[in-house]
Design a protein that fits this description.
Layout (H helix, E strand, L loop, with lengths): L1 H6 L3 E7 L5 E6 L1 H5 L2 H15 L6 E5 L2 H13 L2 E7 L5 E3 L10 E9 L3 H12 L3 E10 L11 E6 L11 H4 L5 E2 L1
Parallel strand pairs: 1-9, 3-4, 3-6, 6-7, 7-8
Antiparallel strand pairs: 1-2, 4-5
Helix pairs in contact: 3-4
Length: 181
C-alpha cells in the first residue's frame, strides 16, 4: 500500500503543521494519490474489503478527502457515499440535502488519521442525523494507536510518522519555517 503513496509522490519531507496542530517532518499529501483514479481505486478496494463485515447502508466521510473516499468505497460496495461538512456552529454536519434514516448503518471513512478529530466530528454528525456508526476505515493510520473508536476500525495501511506538540518540535526550536497543511 505504501508503494501507491510513493509512486504518486504523496510522502513529503519538510516541517509541517498538521490539521491537529501538531508538527511533523514528514507529511502524507493524500491528494497526490487521490488525483489518480487507479491508485485511489486500489486503496479504496482495500478499505472496502476490510470493512465489508460492518454491513453498512451508507458510506460517509468528512470534507475534503473523505468525499472521494466515501464515493469510491460506496461505488465498490454498491452503497451511496455522502460527506459531512464543517458546520457554522463547529463540528460537522450533513448539508446539501444529505440525510440519514433513523438507525441507518453508516461506515465512516477518512484519509489520514492523526488525532481522529475529523472522524469524531463525522461520527457526531451521523449520530445527530439519526444514523448508527458501524465502523471506521481510513487510508492511513499514523496515530500509533492513540486514536481509538468504539466501533470496528480498519486502516488500509499504517505509517509511523511521528508528530510533536509545537513546544516539543526540534525544527521549531531550530527556527525552521513551518508549512501549514
Amino acid at each position: 500500500m505504501i508503494a501507491a503513496f510513493e509512486q504518486t509522490g504523496a510522502i513529503l519531507n519538510g516541517h509541517f503543521q498538521l490539521n491537529s496542530g501538531r508538527h511533523s517532518d514528514r507529511y502524507l499529501e493524500k491528494f497526490n494519490l487521490l488525483q489518480w483514479p487507479e491508485q485511489t481505486e486500489v486503496v479504496c478496494k482495500r478499505m472496502a474489503e476490510g470493512s465489508r463485515d460492518t454491513n453498512p447502508q451508507t458510506i460517509a466521510g468528512p470534507t475534503t478527502g473523505g468525499i472521494i473516499l466515501a464515493y469510491e468505497i460506496g461505488r465498490q460496495l454498491g452503497k451511496r457515499g455522502i460527506f459531512a461538512e464543517r458546520a457554522e456552529a463547529g463540528g460537522r454536519a450533513f448539508q446539501r440535502d444529505f440525510h440519514l434514516e433513523a438507525g441507518e448503518r453508516v461506515l465512516v471513512v477518512d484519509d489520514v488519521l492523526t488525532s481522529g478529530a475529523s472522524i469524531r466530528d463525522t461520527i457526531d454528525a451521523v449520530n445527530a442525523a439519526g444514523g448508527v456508526v458501524v465502523g471506521v476505515a481510513v487510508m492511513v493510520d499514523r496515530s500509533q494507536g492513540r486514536a481509538t473508536f468504539d466501533v470496528p476500525f480498519f486502516a488500509a495501511t499504517e505509517v509511523e510518522l511521528p508528530s510533536y506538540e509545537p513546544s516539543e518540535c526540534a525544527q521549531c526550536k531550530a527556527g525552521v519555517p513551518v508549512e501549514v497543511r
